[in-house]
Structure formats: structure tokens, C-alpha cells
């Protein structure tokens, strides 16, 4: 197969552009590779560069010469130090490698020259249109402010998000003995230092703080030298009395760059031009180098440039998206650092280490068992007990572990009556070991159903059927609690069963809908009637009557459904509540009816049994409920006696734009827990027991609710215990199942081969 791209132009002489040039020239020495860099060879605006073992492995296989040169200059260390309120906690086993950015560029310059790459320093690149027309391939590695990206913005469709912290890159002339995070609580607010060695006698130091803290401290009016001197004083102990130095350093705000597309014709984006990831996970150079490896490999594997660029984008975009999600989680953790300052010291350190969700409880335990065990002891885990198997008390109910089977609509009832399917479905999950099993949303009236297959608690027959299920759980799965979620569909009712067409109106047999305001959910949805005062009273009484039946049916916990765009949620969101009476307008007024319903339910629900509330903490839509609103909503329900807030998001308006990802809803639960001071249940793409342990131990949630994992595996919690070698009081294997309490043996799995392997 012929090598593609004979004449290659590269804009930008950072590590990504240089490494792409070296790889492409090495793959085919006959290529004409020209790189334009507007700065001088020695100009660089950073200090140290951190590379992961994974990235180094890719470099080693693709270009042993570059790898050997890097190896000579690497500074390596294993520890992370976290210093907060005068206490330092150290976690080991992390395996970092760093070197000076200037030295990295020198190595790549030398390699490019040896291979015959034409590098044009101090030279502005010609117009991208010209380079595209005169070359087979144009690689835009021209950074976060990419001119090429801007030139073709209508094709690449960039999205640039500016964040809330200011930071400055500095250095000091000694080597930290660990990756150091230090927190300073000043009269102006919280500031943090990120520091790491990159040479035997030098370390990178990044000082970061929220914009309002930066202004309050006067950094917005300080000269560069004054800023450096102030930072030196604030972090004098961490710096061992040494000065900080600058390299044309200025305060800046981090920008996250995302592009809908990475290529246009024969033009392709690489590195920061295509994407950025916050420095707190140290991945900018790493991503750029990995981009170069993948692009070179795709050009070798594909028959022409267009297909190579499509393959490159298809391969790299999911990897980068995952990294950007982790980077954003890390960035936001530091933006909201003050939220966590009062945690116990070791828990704070654990929270910081696991902030991006890439480091988890399990792999931190493998890296540094002593540190992780100390965090567990401080948290209250008995010896040998994973955090998820510690008990949790809500009012008079003690849950034996922190796992909740999340409410999942089954749409399998007849006339609102749960039948054999529900007995088997909920019974199986109760036998599966979770501390709490929740029903689907149980409707408080016939008109309050979502579909004809929804369950209810508006008749005695329905209550009797539910009692059959609660009796089974209490008898056959002792120690498992079962909770009921009460709700009313509001404007999202009278629709088909999910698998027949989710949220689509019934073809016939529709019933009239009611809501806070007469707004259809979707353009083809039925328009609901706005509820009158009298109807509000009727519905409040329906909730009260259903709660009374739920108590008679033997449920251990009741949850009021105020999320996902159903009736009570429709009152809370400004997008769905357009009322001008006492039940609409300000958040206080929008809360009025949901709180009236809550009070009515609490009035008939047994005092010793917990009552929780599920909310949508954001509508994922402009003008909707915000994270700040969600804290106030949680505070209001807690003030009325809610025992916990079940923190979900979205599904309120059809035009929502959720930011999906692993554990993507947990930051909202974390914020509510710390700012509203109420226990929370976290939900949303929590898929592994490692996630549960990590979230619980970090103090981001009290309970974790999982839905799809329990559809995939009804005995998910039992299997989580088996996989962790746990057999304590937080789990009970049903006697007939104990023979399955050991994890079955599995076959061999081989590690993936290197992405790009070339000869020596």
C-alpha cells in the first residue's frame, strides 16, 4: 500500500506538531514535510511536561530514538502530597515522569532535523487555504488559539468554554519530592498550588484561584513581578523559602476547546487546536503526542488521505472526549474547592485524588493500600469492609449497605395493579443484596399515569398487590428495605409503552392531562389543562391517600417524585411553570405546591419511616433550573422534613442537552450534600462497585442508586461483594444461592498491541 500524503505542511512547532513531523518523515523519508513555527527554537511558555507510562509506551514502540533521548532526562517520582490546614498526607504508587518543556522540544527538534524535516522558525505560516491547495495534507497544530480552526470555523464548529479560575505558570529552582497540592485559605479566599519536579533542580509551580478571589487579592491590578512576589509569600512553606520565577508568565483563564469535526478536506486539527484538557490532570502534551501517533498510523493503514483523516477522527474523538470529561470533573472540583475544606483530612485527600474519576478507590488501594486503609478507618469502615457495605441510617431505618436499586418504570401493570412480573422483578433485586430496592414511579391516580401499563396506589386492590411484594421482600430477603416512589405524570402522561414509542401519545384511549401550565411536552404531545386551585387540592389529597395506602402495604421508605418533568417537577422548573398566581413566578412560589404535597404526605406517613424527594438538579436547558436553584430546592424540602434528596437531572423539557458521561450527575449531589447539609442519593451512569466505593468514601454522596446495572444483573450487589472478597454484615446471601458466592473462573485475556510499531 503506498504511503499517503507526499507533501505535508504542519502549522505549529509544539510537541504534537514536531512529533507528527518526525513520525511521518520516518515512515516515508521521501515525504516533503515542512513545519512553520512563529517563535524562536528556545521560546517556550511552560516549564515541565508530564507524560504517562501509556504515552511513553507508544513513543517507545513508534520511535525508539526519541524514547531513548527522553529516558535520559526524565525525572521520575511516585508520590502525591496533599497539604491542607497544616497537615500533609502522602499517597504513593502513582508513577509520574516529567522533563523540561524546553528539553522536550530540543529532542524533537534534533529528531526532525536528523530525519530531514524542514522547520521554519520565526516564520508565520502561509494562509491555510494556500497550504491546503499546495500540499497533500495540512496538519494544524497551532494551539488553543488556532488560526486554522478559526479559518474553517463553519466546518470545525468549535465550542470554547471559559472557566471560573485564574492561574499562572511559574517555576522554582528546587525539585519537589512529590507531586504537591497545597491549599492556602487566605483572607481573600482559597488559593491552591500545583507543583511537580521536572529536573533535579527545578519544579513547575501553578498557582490557581477563583476569579473573585484573584480580584479580591488585587492580582488583577498587580504587575507580573508583584504577582510572583505575593505568590511566593503565600506559599513560602511549600517553596522552602525559595523564590518563584517566570517565563513571560501571565494570569490566564483556562478554556476548554471542543470541535464538532476535526478535519476538512485535507486539513486536520491536532493537539490543543482540536481539544484542550485542564492542566490538573496533566494531559495536554500527552493528548497531542497520542494524536500524532494515531494520525501517523491511520495514514499508513488507509488507502487515501480523506479516509485516513476520517479514521483518525473516529479513533481519537471518543478517547479525547473521555479525557475531557475527566479533566472537566477535575477542573470543577478545584473551582469548588472551598466546598470540601471541612472534610476530615484524609477524606479530603482521597476526594482530591479521585476528583477526575480516573483514579478510583480500587486502583488507589492497589497503588497505596496503607493510605487507602487509613481513609477507610477514618470514614468508619470495619476492617475488610468496602465503603459500599457500611450501614447508613435514615430516620428509623438502617440500611445495611449503600446500594439502592433505582426506580425503573416497567410499564407492565394492568389497571394499575402490580402483578407477577413485579413480584419477580422486585423480588429478584431484593434477593440480589442491595440495601434498598425502590419501586417504579407509582401513580396516585388513574389520570396521573404515564402509560396504561403504569402501577398505582389509588385503589385498595393495588395496595393489596403491593403488600404481597413487600411481604416477599421482608420474608425472603431479610435486611433488604423496599421503598415506594409516588408521583403524578402531569403533562407527560397518556403515552405509549416505552418500547412502543417513548413519550409518544397513545393512538386512542387517551385521558386528559393536567399540569402547572398548559404547555405540551413535545410539539405532537397533548396540551394539558392548567390546574385550578380546587384541582390542586384534589391532587394533594390523592398523594396523601396513596401515601396512607403505601404505609398499609408495608413499604419501609417513601420517595416523592419531583423530577423528570412529571407533575411536581413541572411546578419547580421555570420552563414548565408559567403561572402568574401564588404557585408560579419566583422559586419560592414554584416550590409552594410541591411543598404542600410533601407536607400532606409527611402527615400520613409513619413518623419513624424516612421520606425522601427526587429532584432534577438541572434541566440541561437555557433558562431552566440551575444547580444553584437545586440547592435551594433541597434546602426547602429538608426544612420540611425530607430525610434525603435523590439527585437526578433533566427529562423536564424535550429540547434538553445533557452532558452525559460516567457518574455525570454526581457533582450535583455532591454540591447539594455540602451546601444544603442534607443526605443525598447519587444517580446517573454509576456502573461499577468501584464507582460506588469511590463516591461514598470521598464524601460526595451517602447512597448510590443504580438502574441499568441491576437490569443487566439482578444480583449486582452480591456479585460486587464476591468480587471484593467481602462476606460481612453488609450483605446476606440467600441460603439457596450461597454456592454461587465465589466468583467463577474466567478465560485468559491478552493485552492490546501497541498502536504504532516501527522498525529500529
TrEMBL record:
Residues 736-760 are annotated as: Disordered. It comes from the Bacteria. GO terms for molecular function: FAD binding; FMN binding; NADP binding; NADPH dehydrogenase activity. Pfam families: FAD_binding_3, Oxidored_FMN. SUPFAM superfamilies: FAD/NAD(P)-binding domain, FMN-linked oxidoreductases. Residues 388-721 form the NADH:flavin oxidoreductase/NADH oxidase N-terminal domain. Gene3D superfamilies: 3.30.9.20, Aldolase class I, FAD/NAD(P)-binding domain. CDD domains: OYE_YqiM_FMN. Residues 8-324 form the FAD-binding domain. This is Salicylyl-CoA 5-hydroxylase. It comes from Streptomyces diastatochromogenes. The lineage of its organism: Bacteria, Bacillati, Actinomycetota, Actinomycetes, Kitasatosporales.
Amino acid at each position: 500500500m503506498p504511503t499517503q500524503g507526499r507533501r505535508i505542511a504542519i502549522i505549529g512547532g509544539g510537541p504534537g506538531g514536531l512529533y507528527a513531523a518526525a513520525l511521518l518523515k520516518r515512515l516515508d523519508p521521501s515525504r516533503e514535510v515542512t513545519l512553520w513555527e512563529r517563535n524562536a527554537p528556545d521560546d517556550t511558555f511552560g516549564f515541565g511536561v508530564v507524560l504517562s507510562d501509556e504515552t511513553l509506551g507508544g513513543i517507545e514502540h513508534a520511535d525508539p530514538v526519541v524514547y531513548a533521548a527522553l529516558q535520559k532526562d526524565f525525572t521520575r517520582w511516585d508520590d502525591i502530597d496533599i497539604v491542607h490546614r497544616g497537615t500533609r498526607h502522602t499517597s504513593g504508587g502513582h508513577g509520574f515522569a516529567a522533563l523540561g518543556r524546553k528539553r522536550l522540544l530540543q529532542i524533537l527538534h534534533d529528531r526532525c532535523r536528523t530525519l530531514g524535516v524542514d522547520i521554519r522558525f520565526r516564520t508565520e505560516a502561509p494562509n491555510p487555504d494556500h497550504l491546503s491547495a499546495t500540499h497533500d495534507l495540512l496538519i494544524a497544530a497551532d494551539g488553543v488559539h488556532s488560526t486554522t480552526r478559526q479559518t474553517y470555523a463553519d466546518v470545525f464548529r468549535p465550542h470554547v468554554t471559559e472557566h471560573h479560575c485564574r492561574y499562572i505558570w511559574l517555576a522554582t529552582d528546587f525539585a519537589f519530592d512529590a507531586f504537591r497540592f497545597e491549599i492556602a485559605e487566605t483572607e481573600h479566599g482559597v488559593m491552591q498550588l500545583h507543583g511537580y519536579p521536572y529536573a533535579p533542580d527545578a519544579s513547575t509551580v501553578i498557582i490557581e484561584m477563583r476569579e473573585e478571589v484573584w480580584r479580591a487579592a488585587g492580582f488583577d491590578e498587580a504587575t507580573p513581578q508583584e504577582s510572583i512576589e505575593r505568590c511566593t509569600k503565600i506559599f513560602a512553606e511549600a517553596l522552602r523559602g525559595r523564590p518563584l520565577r517566570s517565563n513571560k508568565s501571565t494570569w490566564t483563564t483556562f478554556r476548554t476547546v471542543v470541535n464538532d469535526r476535526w478535519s476538512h478536506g485535507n486539513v486536520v486539527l491536532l493537539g490543543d487546536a482540536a481539544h484542550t484538557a485542564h492542566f490538573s490532570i496533566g494531559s495536554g502534551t500527552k493528548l497531542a503526542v497520542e494524536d500524532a501517533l494515531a494520525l501517523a498510523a491511520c495514514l499508513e493503514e488507509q488507502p487515501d488521505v480523506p479516509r485516513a483523516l476520517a479514521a483518525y477522527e473516529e479513533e481519537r474523538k471518543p478517547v479525547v472526549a473521555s479525557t475531557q470529561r475527566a479533566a472537566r470533573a477535575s477542573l470543577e472540583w478545584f473551582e469548588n474547592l472551598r466546598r470540601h475544606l471541612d472534610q476530615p483530612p484524609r477524606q479530603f485527600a482521597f476526594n482530591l485524588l479521585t476528583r477526575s474519576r480516573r483514579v478510583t478507590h480500587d486502583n488507589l488501594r492497589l497503588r497505596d493500600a496503607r493510605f487507602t486503609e487509613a481513609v477507610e478507618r477514618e470514614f468508619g469502615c470495619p476492617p475488610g469492609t468496602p465503603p459500599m457495605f457500611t450501614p447508613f441510617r435514615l430516620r428509623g431505618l438502617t440500611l445495611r449497605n449503600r446500594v439502592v436499586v433505582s426506580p425503573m418504570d416497567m410499564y407492565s401493570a394492568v389497571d394499575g395493579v402490580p402483578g407477577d412480573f413485579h413480584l419477580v422483578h422486585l423480588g429478584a433485586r431484593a434477593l440480589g443484596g442491595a440495601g434498598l430496592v425502590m419501586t417504579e414511579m407509582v401513580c396516585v391516580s388513574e389520570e396521573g399515569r404515564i402509560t396504561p401499563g403504569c402501577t398505582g396506589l389509588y385503589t385498595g386492590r393495588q395496595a393489596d398487590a403491593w403488600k404481597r411484594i413487600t411481604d416477599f421482600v421482608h420474608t425472603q430477603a431479610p435486611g433488604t428495605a423496599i421503598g415506594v416512589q409516588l408521583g403524578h405524570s402531569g403533562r407527560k402522561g397518556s403515552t405509549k409503552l416505552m418500547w412502543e414509542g417513548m413519550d409518544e401519545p397513545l393512538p386512542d384511549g387517551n385521558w386528559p392531562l393536567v399540569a402547572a401550565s398548559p404547555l405540551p411536552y413535545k410539539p405532537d404531545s397533548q396540551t394539558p389543562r392548567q390546574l385550578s386551585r380546587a384541582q390542586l387540592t384534589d391532587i394533594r389529597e390523592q398523594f396523601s391517600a396513596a401515601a396512607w395506602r403505601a404505609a398499609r402495604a408495608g413499604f419501609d421508605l417513601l420517595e416523592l417524585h419531583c423530577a423528570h418533568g412529571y407533575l411536581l417537577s413541572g411546578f419547580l422548573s421555570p420552563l414548565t411553570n408559567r403561572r402568574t398566581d401564588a404557585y408560579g413566578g419566583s422559586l419560592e412560589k414554584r416550590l409552594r405546591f410541591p411543598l404542600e404535597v410533601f407536607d400532606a404526605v409527611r402527615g400520613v406517613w409513619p413518623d419513624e419511616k424516612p421520606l425522601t424527594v427526587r429532584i432534577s438538579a438541572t434541566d440541561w436547558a437555557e433558562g431552566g433550573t440551575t444547580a444553584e436553584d437545586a440547592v435551594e430546592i433541597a434546602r426547602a424540602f429538608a426544612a420540611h422534613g425530607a430525610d434525603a434528596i435523590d439527585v437526578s437531572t433533566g427529562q423536564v423539557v424535550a429540547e434538553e442537552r445533557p452532558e452525559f458521561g460516567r457518574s455525570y450527575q454526581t457533582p450535583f449531589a455532591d454540591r447539594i450534600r455540602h451546601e444544603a447539609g442534607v443526605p443525598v442519593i447519587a444517580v446517573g451512569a454509576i456502573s461499577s462497585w468501584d464507582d460506588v466505593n469511590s463516591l461514598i468514601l470521598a464524601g460526595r454522596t451517602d447512597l448510590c442508586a443504580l438502574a441499568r446495572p441491576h437490569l443487566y444483573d439482578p444480583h449486582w450487589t452480591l456479585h460486587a461483594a464476591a468480587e471484593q472478597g467481602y462476606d460481612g454484615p453488609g450483605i446476606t446471601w440467600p441460603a439457596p444461592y450461597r454456592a454461587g458466592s465465589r466468583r467463577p473462573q474466567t478465560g485468559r485475556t491478552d493485552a492490546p498491541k501497541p498502536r504504532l510499531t516501527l522498525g529500529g
